[in-house]
């Protein structure tokens, strides 16, 4: 009896089944840190509201004031946390995809130099100023797009993320342009939430520890609640301090470890516009929205105002001389002396027309 081999599509399906199952398991496991955080918060709510406020605190005025303050910070913490989790990372628009003709040429071309020429031709019409360490146009082979400035590919999310900061397992999401403000607020309110617990629990922690209060089922919860809140407060506060420093410098975590490369070389402060403008870029220009996890960041995430690092060195020399920024020996390094210079390109469509005039303004950092 003749043996027949199974169809190719059946074999392909059999090969894909384990891969799909592993991917589903990986996605499920990615939610474990989020589940852990929610379980800790749920237990802290029970320990504080029931064991502390209901069973331990004898004074009604103190009990009510503690509950009001606790619930305000808890609500802000939960709101900002789930906004960070639920905000889909912003990805580059179709504008950064190669046109069909150039894409066909790019895929057929085997020489890296020729591929770069194709990318450079397309990039002329895009607001792209950063390069790879080797000076090439940044291109994502997986997403098949020219990467906008500050955009990076996340292997976990399997997509390019605008102004990517990092992938955070505690929120099971990429932190980038669409949710960076939410993430910073999440850290801030998490710190305040822990601080409120420590400040209000400490007196009863001491009373239980010194046996001034009788041993009850609340003792374990009160003691453990203080230790957990203090531990989380210290760890979260250190992370919050670091990200506030990044906001003030207008850097992402990736840029802090690896400086963005412009045509004139790497520059960690290439996107810094001064402390006040750096803060405004993340939190918005209306202070009334800063404390709320609502989107108020400036821009669209595809292009950013930069310092004078990509303009021709001779042009930069001329501008710096006019503003008295050139050293005595007359030698100028635009990457260093461009600290207080920035350019803006006015284009409603977000594209750069090479015929446009680049306006350069001098502005001192506070």
Describe the model.
It catalyses: L-cysteinyl-[protein] + hexadecanoyl-CoA = S-hexadecanoyl-L-cysteinyl-[protein] + CoA. It holds the Pfam family DHHC. The chain crosses the membrane at residues 28-48, 64-82, 182-206, 218-242. Its main location: membrane. This protein is mainly alpha-helical and 366 residues long. It is 50% helix and 9% strand. The protein has helices at 8-29, 32-54, 60-86, 100-108, 112-123, 180-209, 217-249, 253-257, 275-283, 313-322, 334-337, and strands spanning 130-131, 139-140, 145-146, 152-154, 159-161, 166-168, 173-175, 261-262, 265-266, 306-307, 341-344, 359-362. Strands 1-8-9 form a 3-stranded antiparallel beta sheet, with no helix packed on it. A 3-stranded antiparallel beta sheet has the order 10-11-12, with no helix packed on it. A hairpin with a 2-residue loop joins strand 8 and strand 9 (265-266). The radius of gyration is 27 Å and the shape is elongated. The model is unreliable at 10-16, 309-313 and 315-366 (pLDDT under 50).
Question: What's a concise summary of this model?
Answer:
It contains eleven helices and twelve strands. With 366 residues, the chain is mainly alpha-helical.
List keywords for this structure.
single chain, 366 residues, mainly alpha, 3-stranded antiparallel β-sheet, 50% helix, elongated, disordered C terminus, EC 2.3.1.225, transferase, transmembrane, membrane, Palmitoyltransferase
């Amino acid at each position: 009896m003749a043996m027949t081999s199974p169809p190719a599509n059946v074999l392909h399906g059999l090969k894909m089944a384990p891969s799909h199952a592993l991917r589903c398991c990986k996605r499920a496991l990615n939610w474990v840190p989020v589940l852990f955080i929610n379980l800790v918060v749920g237990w802290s709510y029970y320990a504080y509201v029931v064991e502390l406020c209901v069973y331990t605190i004898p004074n009604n005025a103190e009990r009510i004031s503690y509950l009001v303050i606790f619930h305000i910070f808890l609500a802000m913490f939960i709101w900002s946390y789930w906004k960070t989790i639920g905000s889909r990372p912003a990805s580059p628009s179709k504008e950064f995809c190669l046109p069909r003709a150039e894409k066909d040429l790019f895929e057929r071309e085997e020489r890296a130099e020729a591929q770069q020429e194709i990318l450079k031709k397309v990039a002329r019409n895009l607001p792209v100023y950063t390069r790879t360490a080797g000076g090439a146009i940044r291109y994502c082979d997986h997403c098949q797009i020219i990467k906008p400035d500050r955009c990076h590919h996340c292997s976990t999310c399997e997509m390019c993320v605008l102004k990517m900061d990092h992938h955070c397992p505690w929120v099971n999401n990429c932190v980038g342009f669409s949710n960076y403000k939410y993430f910073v607020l999440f850290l801030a309110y998490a710190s305040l939430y822990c601080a409120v617990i420590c400040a209000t629990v400490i007196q009863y922690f001491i009373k239980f520890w010194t046996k001034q209060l009788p041993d009850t089922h609340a003792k374990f919860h009160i003691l453990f609640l203080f230790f957990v809140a203090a531990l989380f407060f210290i760890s979260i506060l250190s992370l919050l301090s670091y990200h506030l420093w990044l906001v003030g410098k207008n850097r992402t975590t990736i840029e802090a470890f690896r400086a963005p490369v412009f045509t004139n070389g790497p520059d960690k402060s290439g996107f810094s516009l001064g402390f006040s403008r750096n803060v405004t870029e993340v939190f918005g220009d209306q202070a009334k929205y800063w404390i709320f996890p609502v989107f108020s960041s400036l821009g669209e995430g595809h292009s950013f105002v930069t310092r004078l690092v990509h303009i021709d060195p001779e042009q930069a020399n001329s501008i710096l001389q006019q503003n008295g920024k050139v050293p005595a020996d007359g030698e100028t390094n635009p990457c260093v002396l461009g600290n207080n210079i920035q350019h803006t390109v006015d284009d409603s469509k977000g594209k750069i027309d090479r015929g446009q005039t680049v306006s350069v303004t001098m502005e001192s950092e506070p």
